[in-house]
Specification:
The complex is a heterodimer of chains A (277) and B (369). By secondary structure, chain A is mainly α. Chain A has helices at 2-34, 54-62, 65-96, 102-112, 117-131, 137-162, 165-173, 178-189, 191-207, 210-215, 224-229, 241-262. The longest helix of chain B is centred in the middle third of the chain and has 18 residues, at 166-183. Chain B has helices spanning 42-50, 92-102, 107-121, 136-149, 166-183, 194-200, 218-223, 228-233; strands at residues 4-13, 16-26, 31-35, 57-62, 65-66, 77-80, 154-158, 186-190, 203-208, 211-216, 240-250, 253-257, 263-267, 280-285, 291-292, 298-309, 314-320, 325-330, 341-346, 352-354, 360-361. Classes of the chains: A mainly alpha (277), B alpha+beta (369).
């Protein structure tokens, strides 16, 4: 009995170790590689003997990488804010109000997310140039919305449905209008859901590549993923791995920090005390 | 003067009719309790008054104004929900103040009213807590407090005690009774618990399948049920309802013959000449009125099925010769045992007779004690 338990927990921790190595190792390798220059890149060192920071300074000196990060931030934040604002109000209607055609509408919202990006690319390009926002950051904010809105709406609708009906009725009796109910009563309770969906939307917008490379032209307007892909070396035949890795590490860090901040908010039980339970 | 008047109020969800033509006058300061079995529409009726459901037909007046289409907040009502429905992210103080804040009451007035309500309910020390840090009873008080701060014309309670444990329920019931005297407002209270109904109500409204079966004071309903449904619903254990047939009709009484041969003569206020001998009727006797077989009582024999001893009293479940079950209330020292033969006495003067349509034939004896 005891031996079985020991074997069981040994296997369990082996599995955990394997998963951790599998997920963390690429990032670790990126960090190690970003600290090497020249031919040192091609030697296997698990800890670089002499860390070089040249790659990090180079990407900011030789191209507008700071500007690229700022672009990515502007796009991602605007996408998160607009998607959440739209989907919270939409989810109130879809989750709490009975109206004809509610289910078809929800299905349409869902089906939007089924189209592969390539399928909408050319149409979206037409739209972007018709609106005159080609090579502007707005083009990305707008186009990313079709990636983020369906799932933010769906997730928030699900959460919205689970909020107790009596809470809304109590607010109605207290004299709250729908917008007040959303902002004063439901929004604070949707905190965890908003944090989760907002974070996912942020990551989606932060990582997006295809729209970004299609709708922007100048280096000044590029977002980070495109900028990294276009980092070039001294000659056509040289791929500057060190700099690519340095850039990747820089853009991954904000995501890690965001997740660490929000994971404390992504906890259930915020509604505790509302109703008997 | 906040009276609530319902005129032919009806409610249908699609094809399903839940409330049928309810007429009701609730006077100012009345404590009215809606009771009925689950699914009888009592909660729906309350929600119609609150404005949380739309009225399908009929008219509703609160304080003289027709409010069919008014928003809940414009009706001058406050509601206490079964699940409390406190705002979980707000402190008790903010919960109590929320409605007033929305009504743009000035800060000092809000503070005064919130503290007053908290004082009445003895929750002053909890004002800074969030609902999740409160016990069930405390949450319930906050929910009631939220209603009080709005200073409504009419209080609506939707089964407010059903989530509390038995001891707390009795205590909160007493507090609501005290509150009723203190506030003097009109109150409408929904429950399926008859003890709550009997103890709290000035008037009880018995509902069944969306219809009002009877309206009256608790004792009136207990001693003079208008029909078989009310007779069976009010009282615990319920009234014994025995099937029988008319044996003979006299000018001021009727003799009912039960299967097994027992004949009970019940004095009636009006004669029931229209009922022919042989017509099926129902004889109703409360468990406490069934006595020992003494002189002047109709005797009925049977066999004891079960004896329930509650300490302060005992209940005998007796299977009669006519194959009907009679519940008898006895003192704590009842000697009867299961499977024993027993002879019971049915007092005609304390019995009710219900005609074939289920309606009570009016009794000659005024509300017996």
């Amino acid at each position: 009995m005891k031996a079985r338990k020991i074997i069981g927990s040994t296997l369990f921790y082996l599995l955990v170790t394997a998963i951790v190595v599998y997920t963390i190792f690429p990032f670790y390798w990126a960090i190690v590689s970003s600290l090497k220059e020249g031919s040192a890149l091609y030697k296997v060192d698990f800890l670089p003997p002499k860390p070089e920071w040249g790659n990090y300074t180079a990407i900011f000196k030789e191209q507008p990488f700071g500007k690229n990060i700022l672009n990515s931030l502007v796009v991602a934040v605007s996408v998160v804010v607009i998607s959440l604002a739209l989907s919270v109000t939409a989810s109130y209607a879809l989750g709490r109000i009975n109206f004809r055609g509610r289910t078809p509408l929800l299905l349409i919202v869902l089906s939007v997310s089924m189209f592969p990006q390539v399928a909408v690319l050319s149409g979206m390009f037409e739209l972007v140039s018709w609106l005159g926002i080609y090579d502007r950051l707005w083009s990305l904010s707008l186009s990313y919305m079709i990636l983020t809105l369906p799932f933010t709406t769906w997730v928030l609708t699900t959460f919205m449905r689970e909020l107790p009906k009596e809470l809304e009725e109590a607010a109605l009796v207290d004299g709250a209008k729908p917008l007040t109910i959303i902002t004063k009563v439901f929004l604070p309770l949707l905190g965890p859901a908003m944090a989760t969906t907002g974070l996912l939307a942020f990551i989606a917008a932060w990582n997006e590549f295809m729209f970004a490379i299609t709708f922007t032209l100048s280096n000044e307007r590029r977002t980070v993923p495109v900028a990294i892909a276009l980092i070039s070396g001294a000659s056509r035949f040289e791929l500057p791995w060190g700099r690519v890795m340095a850039a990747s590490v820089i853009v991954t860090v904000p995501l890690v920090i965001l997740v660490l901040i929000f994971q404390r908010r992504i906890v259930s039980g915020l509604t505790a005390g509302a109703v008997k339970g | 003067m906040a009276e609530v008047v319902l005129k032919k109020v009806g409610k249908a969800f699609g094809d399903i009719i839940v409330i049928r033509d309810v007429d009701l006058d609730i006077a100012h300061g009345d404590f009215v309790v809606f009771v009925g079995p689950s699914g009888c529409g009592k909660s729906t009726l309350l929600r119609l008054i609150a404005g949380l459901e739309d009225i399908t037909s009929g008219e509703l007046f609160i304080d003289g104004a027709k409010v069919n289409d008014a928003l809940p907040s414009q009706r001058g009502i406050a509601m206490v929900f079964q699940s409390y429905a406190l705002y979980p992210h707000m402190t008790v103080y903010e919960n109590l103040a929320f409605g007033l804040k929305l009504a743009k009451t000035d800060k000092e007035a809000i503070d005064k009213r919130v503290r007053e309500a908290a004082r009445i309910l003895q929750i002053d020390h909890l004002l800074d807590r969030k609902p999740r840090a409160l016990s069930g009873g405390q949450r319930q008080r906050v929910a009631i407090g939220r209603a009080i701060t709005r200073e409504p014309k009419v209080f609506l309670f939707d089964e407010p005690l059903s989530n509390l444990d038995a001891a707390l329920r009795v205590q909160t019931r007493l507090e609501i009774a005290r509150l009723k005297d203190q506030l003097g407002a009109t109150m409408i209270y929904v429950t399926h618990d008859q003890v709550e109904a009997m103890t709290l109500a000035d008037r009880i409204v018995v509902l069944n399948q969306g219809r009002v079966e009877q309206v009256g004071s608790p004792l009136e309903l207990y001693t003079r049920p208008r029909n078989v449904f009310v007779a069976g619903f009010i009282g615990s254990p319920k009234m014994n309802l025995l099937k029988g047939a008319v044996e003979a009709v006299a000018p001021e009484s009727m003799t009912v013959r039960l299967p097994g041969g027992t004949k009970v003569t019940v004095p009636l206020a009006k004669d029931a000449q229209n009922l022919q001998p042989g017509t099926g009727v129902t004889l109703g006797v409360r468990p406490e009125d069934v006595g020992m077989a003494t002189n002047g009582m109709a005797k009925i024999t049977g066999r004891v099925l079960v004896v329930e001893r509650l300490g302060s009293e005992s209940y005998l479940y007796v299977r009669t010769e006519g194959d009907q079950t009679v519940v008898v209330r006895r003192g704590p020292g009842a000697t009867a045992k299961a499977d024993e033969p027993i002879t019971l006495g049915l007092p005609g003067s304390a019995s009710h007779v219900f005609g074939p349509d289920g309606l009570a034939l009016s009794r000659a004896v005024p509300a017996a004690a």
